[in-house]
């Protein structure tokens, strides 16, 4: 583990409570209340291929809420991420879904890839241009989603990418991109999905955009594989659910 508490992660004032409902439409949904700037947060230098993780705070020993996890990045337009408020474009570099069959009620517990883990990890894609970025890791527990009460836990780290995307800091961000807030709507099927059906065979709608080329997908919509695969290109969207064209398993 690198650094002390909040060394590279923007400190916020929400504590360990989740965001729910219309809170996903507020600017604080980017990096939490109090996280609009990172003047007192250090910037960690990484290179393509480095494995990065944001660990649970407040003494957390493992996520035991059912739901997916993802990691978004946003490049600081001025060059310095410390003053960046996250109002620019975001792209998804990691998506973690089901790593085991969701049948017989397992979708309510440990079928999810991140169940029991105390951090959200990803590998920095080579497709990300040099520069300073916010890295936003997010977990979405779905146990209350059937009542419109999906929970969002998230935080932002500050990193500097060196040696990426042809060593160019002027390169454009990978696509597709989204805004935060705006990445989810309150009535999105993916965050109103009921896990309380023992006959479920897949998590058929996935929150947010597709993972960019060079990013990673862990698990699958139906839990048939727990592998981490590299995304090599995007397929056409299938409603709000998507299937990826993937590269070689890691």
Question: TL;DR?
Answer:
This protein is mostly beta strands. Helices cover 0% and strands 25% of the residues.
Q: Please, could you describe this protein's structure?
A:
With 250 residues, the protein is mainly beta. The protein has one domain: Distorted Sandwich (Coagulation Factor XIII, Chain A, domain 1). It is 0% helix and 25% strand. It is built from no helices and 10 strands. It has strands at 44-46, 51-55, 69-75, 91-96, 119-123, 131-139, 153-161, 211-218, 228-233, 245-249. The strands form 2 sheets. Strands 1-7-6-3-4-8-9-10 form an 8-stranded mixed sheet, with no helix packed on it. It is globular, with a radius of gyration of 17 Å. The protein starts with 43 loop residues before the first strand and ends with a strand.
Keywords:
250 residues; mainly beta; Coagulation Factor XIII, Chain A, domain 1; eight-stranded mixed β-sheet; two-stranded antiparallel ribbon; 10 strands; 0% helix; disordered C terminus
């Amino acid at each position: 583990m690198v650094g002390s508490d909040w060394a590279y992660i923007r400190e916020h004032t929400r504590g360990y409570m989740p965001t729910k409902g219309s809170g996903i439409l507020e600017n604080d949904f980017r990096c939490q209340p109090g996280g609009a700037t990172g003047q007192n947060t250090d910037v960690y230098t990484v290179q393509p291929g480095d494995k990065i993780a944001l660990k649970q705070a407040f003494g957390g020993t493992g996520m035991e809420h059912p739901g997916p996890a993802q990691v978004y990045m946003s490049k600081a337009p001025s060059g310095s991420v410390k003053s960046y408020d996250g109002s620019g474009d975001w792209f998804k570099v990691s998506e973690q879904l089901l790593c085991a069959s969701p049948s017989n009620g397992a979708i309510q517990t440990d079928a999810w890839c991140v169940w029991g883990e105390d951090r959200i990890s990803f590998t920095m894609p080579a497709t990300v241009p040099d520069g300073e970025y916010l890295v936003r890791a997010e977990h979405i527990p779905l146990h209350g989603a059937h009542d419109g009460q999906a929970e969002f836990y998230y935080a932002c780290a500050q990193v500097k990418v060196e040696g990426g995307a042809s060593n160019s800091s002027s390169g454009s961000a990978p696509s597709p991109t989204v805004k935060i807030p705006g990445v989810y709507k309150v009535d999105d099927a993916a965050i109103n999905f009921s896990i309380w059906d023992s006959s479920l065979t897949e998590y058929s709608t996935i929150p947010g955009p597709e993972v960019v080329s060079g990013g990673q997908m862990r698990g699958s919509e139906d839990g048939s594989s727990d592998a981490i695969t590299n995304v090599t290109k995007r397929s056409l969207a299938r409603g709000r659910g998507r299937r990826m064209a993937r590269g070689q398993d890691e």
